[in-house]
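User: I'm curious whether this sequence folds into something compact or stays loose and floppy. Could you predict its structure so I can see for myself?
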Amino acid sequence: MSHPTPAAAPGPASWDQHPEPLAVDSAPCPEYGSGSLADLLPTLAAGMGVPGMTAAITELAPADRNCVFLVDGLGWEQLRAHPEDAPYLTSLLAGSRGGTGRPITAGYPATTATSLASVGTGLPPGAHGLPGYTVRDPATGELMNQLRWQPWTAPHVWQPYPTVFQLAEKAGVHVAQVSSPAFQNTPLTKVALSGGAFHGRLTGEERMDVAAGQLAAGDRSLVYTYYSELDGAGHRYGVDSDTWRGQLMHVDRLVQRLAEQLPPRTALYVTADHGMVDVPFDDEHRIDFDADWELRAGVALLGGEGRARHVYAVPGAAADVLTCWREVLGEQFWVASRDEAIAAGWFGPAIDERVYARIGDVVAAARDDVLIIASEREPKESAMVGNHGSMTPAEQLVPLLEVRS
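Assistant: Here's the prediction. I'll summarize afterward.
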């Protein structure tokens, strides 16, 4: 059941603040229904004749065999900024000889758990129900980390919809997942990516070779493979570091390795879950919630992550918290009430009833290169160089690159 859509968010003239905060509807909302991660697998599955699927990304021609290679943290803007480190990927961009690659939007927030659920289910966050890195579980009142799945909750209660992989397998498509063995039995894999056979391989090269073999295993095949190390390099060292660029070079070689092994009638799509922004280490760019009494006032729980916060107020304090966060952060963040964020379409065209209370009473999405860190509650996350989550192009735009055989 979908939650009723609230009235449209008020314009900035109705916010009696100084300086004037950013209008909620000025945020560049993801392109749900036409050009988002949630639209990719349904489009591919529709082309293979899977019932109930819609080809929302209309320029993608059907193929009998489809492979999605998701590179964690490979933002469109970061790829475009490093052509010398990724010559093969760059050759696939629109404007290159024969290239058609373009950006699509990750969805809000632009973070791994949310995006992987959008990819696998073909649904936006407001439906699949993983609307942030950490969100409040209405049943317990605790913050739930949806990447690590802590504290544990029943996966298929939290996310009850079937994945596109499961629906494709039911329709007779050969389905396979090729990823790190560590991900085989995680709750996130179960709710977001399950379906078909899981093939765990430690190295990227092994994954490319197995993915190619699995594509050839069926007349109609749908194969998903994944690489995470680029994201880790960005978090630790930044998206222009030598380590990050070295990982990008490796990703480029992996994509070419897979492309050169594609069986006939195959389409390979390279995409990502989010981009990334490097944030300087100073008080101007890293606002510490744990040291800021104004931001803490009336707040029961701080969820989300530094660039995409869910703020849960103590009972009766939601309006005051919204006013305060707008006054303090309104020039650097889009700050919305839950209903305003829903009405603006941040989480998709509709919100399932079970998802509504998982969203913060206040939702804050970074516009500038800033973070709301929590140095005491989140010491590891607060120390990261590269960050993501919001709706800026650097985070929100991810590549959709195509190779056909």
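Summary: The first helix runs from residue 40 to 47. The longest strand covers residues 397-404.
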